[in-house]
Amino acid sequence: MRAALAVWFLACLLLVGSACSSIDANHVSQIAFPNRDEFKTAVSPFMEKRCGALDCHGQIGRPLRLYSQFGLRMKAGPNGTRDTSPTTDAELTENYFAVIGIEPEDISDSLLSQGAYNDFLLLKKPLSIEGGGVRHKGGPVLRGGDTGFDCLYSWISGKVNAANCADGAKL
Length: 171
Fold this sequence. Notes:
Helix content is 46%, strand content 0%. Helix 2 packs across helix 3 and helix 2 (36-51) packs parallel to helix 7. It has one domain (32-168). By secondary structure, the protein is mainly alpha-helical. Residues 4-23 have low confidence and may be disordered.
């Protein structure tokens, strides 16, 4: 029985290996993501304040889940209390992957085109439908020209405007 299982396993490995070796590198798309450090220092603080409340994207069940000192935490505070200390590096990293994980190919396309491609959910969800957005359960929270919108757009374009991000984080 073990010998048959081992033969089957080796056959599967050979099959998978041969399938992988036939990939043509010329047909693989280039993927790039916006700067993680700029996200952590400029974009995440804006998103934590504007989007990360416990009744919005600071919830466990949300497709875009944000951790912050203002909302959801990865770990509870002492004795199970809510931790209000600054957002940890691990939480900032999770926020980055949550944001780029929404539509990774579209974010990459926008970065590679330096913002020429901007037709994806991260930029459309927070806008009103009249302003070019799509339905957002929380309603419109940004508008074109808003420093918060410019923060997201500039980061995705590969030239983050940290001043707009800081201004957009003001409530």
